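Thread: NDP complex, take 2
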Amino acid sequence: MRAVQVTRTGGPDVLEVADLPTPEPGPGEVLVDVAAAGVNFIDTYRRSGAYPMSTPFVAGSEGAGTIARLGPDVSELAVGDRVAWKEAPGSYAEQVCVPVAEVVPVPDSVSDEVAAATMLQGMTAHYLATSTYPVGKGDWALVHAAAGGVGLLLTQIVKLRGGRVLATTSTADKAELARGAGADEVTSYDDFADRARELTDGEGFPVVYDGVGRATFERGLDALRVRGLMVLYGAASGPVPAFDPQTLNSKGGLFLTRPSLAYYTRDRAELADRAGELFGWIGAGQLDVRIGGRYSLADAAQAHEDLEGRRTTGKLLILTS
Ligand code: NDP
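Output below.
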């Protein structure tokens, strides 16, 4: 089978297509014919060595496809089932072994592409808006990079819950997309804290969702109201430097959390609940999943370049055919 392999960590050019043996599903695993693999920022952290990996490894972790073989003790799934997953190392490939605990069934109303595009970014947007800070009616939320993969979905979910969104984006086209997803206000990365205060008569917002990191984190604290919550969930612009907790006191007894999807999908039931609600919204036409780019396995390096180069909107997919 063809797969995108990394033999040494580095820039996008270390992503190379290789012919590798079809993997064997072990106990508790299924072998899946991959239709679409999702491209995520975490794939770039692993490729570059920012998140240490032992080489060689096949890139990617998210995808959707059809079960081709069952591991020795697997009885609850069947060959031919359409499934999706957020975490199966080696998903930029024609075939991958997925642990049963990670498998989510895909309903007929959701295509393979949309399923692959929903698992990691969709479930992230879901836990951010429903669990980390459960957005209530009328709540203002600051959503950074609102035209991105997580950002477009998070904006829509905040709106579904009756909240209001102040979005940041870097270009006019991206601002238009954020508005299309329901953002009430869109602003630049220069004045979002002032804008948040203007919109709330000086009080500030109850929550900031920040996946940009270094470039926005500190100023984001100034957008929060007393006892507001800073949700730092990523580092698209680089990691946030060391930080004095006393700042949280001087800016209003703020709360800070650095969540990960793994802590919000702790067992199969929680994973199935989040995916089920997302697929339900998609089937009912309440949530639009924008596929911003489709690439072949051979173009995986280009996908990473585009994502890191800030040239993308919505979700990027790698298609196997
Ligand atoms: P996006 O599609 O949002 O792409 C990143 C966006 O960030 C860019 O398009 C860009 O939008 C913005 N950005 C701002 N500054 C920079 C910069 N210096 N370099 C690159 N991009 C920049 O990516 P994802 O939706 O895949 O991920 C968004 C964030 O969410 C990432 O940090 C990722 O690691 C994190 N994440 C965290 C998870 C968790 O559970 N904690 C799970 C999933 C993702 P613009 O041009 O408008 O500024």
